[in-house]
Amino acid sequence: MKYSPATDPGGTSMATDSMGRGWADVLAEIPLFAGLSKRQLNKIAKLAKTRRYARFTPIVRAGDRGDSFYVILDGTALVKLPGKRGVRLGAGDWFGEMALIDAAPRAATVEAQTDVFAMLLGRNAFLKTVQDEPKIAIALLQTMAERLRASERSASH
Ligand code: CMP
User: Fold this and answer.
1) Ligand 1, atom 9: nearest CA belongs to which residue?
2) 137 alpha carbon – ligand 1 mean position (Å)
3) Pocket residues: Cβ below 6 A from ligand 1
4) pLDDT in tens, 52-92
5) Which helix or strand (DSSP H or E) is residue 152 part of?
6) How far, in Å, CA of 27 to CA of 78, rounded?
7) Contact status, residue 32 vs residue 139, Cβ threshold 8 Å
8) 8 Å CB contact between 4 and 73
9) Model pTM?
């Protein structure tokens, strides 16, 4: 398991679990949360949940209304955009921010390629975190810019 606390009970339950205690040190290792204080990390861990997805399960579906933001803690997922090559995301990568930021439907389907263990922030928790933590806002913008550039490069080939 790439990102999980030493005390994580593991298991294969597909239920959504609270993150809470023991997770701040794990979140500190994830690039999106780099540079945040222990207090800030604890605040995020309290708001977050974890969930497992079986291989080949859609985690979000294109066209759906978005209610959560996701960070992959373990496994790989594929962003499927109509008419384009899929984009692979792995541990530490995130997705699902777009529909929360502009309230438009999900832009792509994101499917688990392996079993995936993910961290979720609900819409309000995500928006509050972004408002409170400019470092997170900048990291999200950087990734959105990189993805836009990559997508435009692939569109011209
Ligand atoms: P959202 O539209 O909420 O749900 C689907 C997610 O896929 C989207 O947010 C982004 O996080 C991600 N996504 C959309 N387009 C791309 C892309 N071109 N490259 C990588 N990820 C993408």
Assistant:
1) 96
2) 16
3) 60, 66, 79, 81, 87, 95-99, 106-108, 110, 147, 151
4) 999 999 999 999 999 999 999 999 999 999 888 899 999 99
5) helix 134-155
6) 22
7) yes
8) yes
9) 0.94
